[in-house]
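This section describes the prediction task in plain terms. A model, or a person checking by hand, is given the sequence of a single protein chain and must write out its three-dimensional structure as a string of tokens. No templates, partner chains or ligands are provided. The sample shown here is typical of the held-out split.
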Amino acid sequence: MAPPLRFVLAGTLAVSALSGCNPDTTGTSSGAPAASGTAALIEADEDEAVDAGSQQKGAAKAAGERVEIPAGKLVAGSVPGDRGRDPALEPALLEVELGAFSIDKLPHPNDPARAPTTGVSRDKAASLCGEAGGRLCTELEWERACRGPEGTRYAGGAKWEPECAKSPETCASAFGVLAMGGAIREWTSSDVDPIKNLIKGGAAVRGAGADAADVDHRCAHRSVVNVAATESNLGFRCCYGDPSPAKIASPDWEDTIKRVEISTEKLTELFASNPRLAPYAKDIKYFREEAAEDTIMRRGRARGTDAGALPENTYLTTSPVMWNPVPGEHVLLVVGRSGEKDAFIVAFHEVPGGRYRVGSALLMKDEVGPVAIVYNPFVRRKLHWTSCWECYGETGNITYREENRVVITQQ
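The expected answer:
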């Protein structure tokens, strides 16, 4: 069996020429009714954008300068599959309407001749803003001021500019707010709701320290900090006007696996819109659920493995499923056959609006199937796939890694 060839495509797309599988006869199904929404495949939207433009620059001329932010719509959060995205903290393209407000041009004390105020608790920060006639910004106000009217990924640009960590006071958002996400984290008045067994809850903090990874400087990046913390790279800035009531709700745990309906016609659309998947966008069929387990187990026994029954709490399916490895992440997993002899396993990140994004894929030449997904609902981050139960080279893992990436591997 040939090893997978890997390349990056908003995740990992692997091509594998599988050989040596006995072609058992199995039926196919044309699929179920289409999922709601219009299918569209989103391509990579990472920092390697061809025309990212240059970082906007700016300067504060005097102490106390403020920037007026007009009322408008903010698309908060990030696209599922984005590098650096934490789905438990960053919403998937949350649309909110915010009222007008004003914001300090620089972090407190908002004076270009003075260093930012750091090392104070959130209550102290709120008190200092009150003394200045203002209040702590909500986190969505902070994100709007950072993104600007065009919704850029970083303050004032589509790419992270390392110089903004060295001289943050020179880097401006498109609204003209300085030093957002450059060299310090900033308190907001917003809270992060707890998620059982994952997040205890606390204050929503935006921005990143100067030595943070590039993706942590994104406008959407959130972290959770104890409200009493007093850290050297934790500052704040003040806002003015009525605060917006809009907030980001924490996602819940969901069933690890849910069966979903997506027609083979809709799946063909998705495949056809991607150059790597396009060769497989022909005569797509799903494997017949009721025959797959018997065929896959029988193959294992025929090869002389110790294949027995599926372990307790372990299930095998050839149907499209939605995988919830962590709160806030929804991954559509599909297995099937293209034409008469090529099989596939593809993981798509679900994006609001009936859209998807390739997370990872294993494309199998000369494999008639069936290929199935094997899962234990109590094991969230790791699933398996197989075309021959316990046969080396004809099984593998579907893993949700710590960096929030889906990776399909062959064993």
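For orientation: Residues 1-39, 46-50 have pLDDT under 50 and may be disordered.
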